[in-house]
Amino acid sequence: MNKVAKTKTLLLAAAIIWAVTAFASNAAALYGFDLPKELIGRTYETDIILKKDGSLLGKSSAKFEQRYYKGKGFLVITGRSGGTVDKKPFASEVSRTFLMDGGKIVPYSIKGTTKTGGKIWTDYFLAFDREAMTARVTYKDLEKNETADKTVALDANMIAIQDLDLYFSSLPGRNISEERLKALLPNGQTFWFLIKMSPQPETVSVKGENIVCRRIELKPDLGLLNIIIPNVNYWVRNEPPYELVRYSGLLSGPGSPDVIMETVRSE
Fold this sequence. Notes:
Helix content: 10-25%
Order of helices and strands: HEEEEEEEEEHEEEEEEE
Structural class: mainly beta
Number of helices: 2
Strand content: over 45%
Number of domains: 1
Radius of gyration: 18 Å
């Protein structure tokens, strides 16, 4: 894989993971789980660090806002990131909108853009219809000249991969220990994955602060391929609002950098 292709592969993975780090037992009824109210109005900042030398790969932020339109309440999460991969600058922005239905969140839309070297690489938009259990997907990879414009049927146990942060924040309060879910990617493709939450709290240190967390292990459910795909781990705070504290694993697929991502500031 040449450096340009590697940069693009890492960028897509980073954009997805950063959306997650911004920061039911059935995840969908799409989605229908409670959002910790303490998250609303907060902004989180995250450092992405290379394990091999401790250098800073990039930074990201995520802002949680409640808005109202025609008498309905919505949650809008705006995530932005920037950094360098293979000495090339990159940036991404993802805006997620949810309908607040009696305190429970329902996905409404996801809009994202990634850039490398100052040029747009991918651009996508997903619009959800909970009643019909479908999502309209518009996706463009401008570098590969690939597009998708289709309607995707949503399973009862499906969740957009960008929304895993909210799903993880719901686990400790509901004491969910294991689950098998299907992830929806920005291009409309899907894959199964398994999650397992540690039975006991664990303490992690971030910027000198010891934080009691629950560790959540995630692994794609790809049959025999599971043997060669390493697990990734997330740590969420073990008290409300159960926000994401740390991620440890590969930045993307095999051969990509091993990283640690830490939430270093919230306000």
